[in-house]
Amino acid sequence: MKVNGVHHRSLWVRPDQGVEIIDQRVLPYTFATRVLRSESDVAEAIRTMAVRGAPLIGVAGAYGVALAMRADSGDDNLAQACSRLDASRPTAVNLRWALDRMRAVLAPLPVAQRADAAWREAQRIADEDVALNRAIGQHGATLIAGIHARTRRAVRVLTHCNAGWIATIDFGTALSAIYQAHDAGIPVHVWVDETRPRSQGLLTAWELAAHGVPHSLIVDNAGGHLMQRGEVDLVLVGADRVSARGDVANKIGTYLKALAAHDNGVPFYAAVPSPTIDWRIEDGLADVPIEERAASEVREVAGLDAAGQRVTVRIADESTPVSNPAFDVTPARLVTGIVTERGIAPPGELAALFPEHRRAA
Ligand code: MRU
């Protein structure tokens, strides 16, 4: 997608094989990039959320393996790099998926061939991500078009967190559907949840503004009220991990939106590329690891001061006890459908779209 008229991916490889990323910690105030030159640079960028969003951290992890292989492509380093990178964030399964894939490709190769093969495989994963997200957007846009055909007015979509192009390599997942509907001339208005504590909604608002999509930023608690008033036609979110039966783990607060949607008869969809589906887990509530992040994320907020300088201010004292779970799980019974690159299915019928993962009876 474009930033100031220039097409960007969220991560790219430089001619000197540095991995360049958009530093998402300073967006939307500053557009800055950083160059990652080692596996530990990548792990740190994932941990500190300089790169974030399930698909993007999967691709970043793959490049972390490529950087590790350039330093030492032996068996021990391959295994240790994968496990160190995997430990950087626990909830989004895309990271483990990408690391497993890198390992499966590299382990059988002679050590001398691994470094080049790792760069090629990481690039393939990145390019595939773009294709998956484009296809998700095409399917998701049909949902929006269907609502517009019924109502003949702007389709009001509520989204949570940032499932846009910067959370992926390009296009995004939930926002890919919105961009493609907008580009097809369907009028859309997006309710953008602020998404405390890290305010990823500001990234969503920044992306939508850059693409010219009408939107309003709302506080996290406004969604239920808007739904009661009939001002939301569709809730469309991304996901960090979806279980085989269709439980959706996503940014903290998603579950409350799904509850409100259910109570008000508003359809609730998650837009999910197949690497986000964890076929090994049935019960997402029991088995998805929920990341607990630093208390400082809750005690502090970041923004601009009157002079336009980025500042962080403390809103709760150091002595205030804090709990900061970063994700929650929406049970499949509250999910109307999952939008994938292969089409849209009710959560219980996800395996019909991916028969290769259907379990033997
Ligand atoms: O903590 P984050 O910002 O990495 O969480 C991101 C989300 O929860 C997104 O909704 C999810 O990864 C989908 S991104 C296409």
Layout of SSEs?
Elements: E1 2-3, E2 6-7, E3 11-13, E4 19-22, E5 33-36, H1 39-47, H2 54-71, H3 75-86, H4 93-106, H5 111-151, E6 155-159, H6 174-183, E7 188-193, H7 200-211, E8 215-218, H8 223-228, E9 234-237, E10 241-243, E11 248-251, H9 254-263, E12 268-271, E13 277-278, H10 284-287, H11 296-299, E14 300-304, E15 310-314, E16 327-330, E17 337-340, E18 343-345, H12 350-353
Parallel strand pairs: 6-7, 6-9, 7-8, 9-12, 10-13, 12-17
Antiparallel strand pairs: 1-2, 3-4, 4-5, 10-11, 11-16, 14-15, 17-18
Helix pairs in contact: 1-2, 1-3, 2-3, 2-4, 2-5, 3-4, 4-5, 5-6
Bound molecules: 5-S-methyl-1-O-phosphono-5-thio-D-ribulose.
5-S-methyl-1-O-phosphono-5-thio-D-ribulose binds at residues 52-55, 92, 161, 163, 167-168, 172-173, 200, 238-240, 250-251, 326.
Can you walk me through this structure?
- This protein is α/β, with parallel strands linked by helices.
- Helix content is 40%, strand content 19%.
- The protein has twelve helices and 18 strands.
- The protein has helices spanning 39-47, 54-71, 75-86, 93-106, 111-151, 174-183, 200-211, 223-228, 254-263, 284-287, 296-299, 350-353, and strands spanning 2-3, 6-7, 11-13, 19-22, 33-36, 155-159, 188-193, 215-218, 234-237, 241-243, 248-251, 268-271, 277-278, 300-304, 310-314, 327-330, 337-340, 343-345.
- It has a seven-stranded mixed beta sheet with strand order 8-7-6-9-12-17-18.
- Helix 7 links the parallel strand 7 and strand 8.
- Helix 1 (39-47) packs parallel to helix 3, helix 2 runs antiparallel to helix 5 (111-151) and helix 4 runs antiparallel to helix 5.
- The termini are far apart.
- The protein binds 5-S-methyl-1-O-phosphono-5-thio-D-ribulose (MRU).
- 5-S-methyl-1-O-phosphono-5-thio-D-ribulose binds next to helix 2 and strand 11.
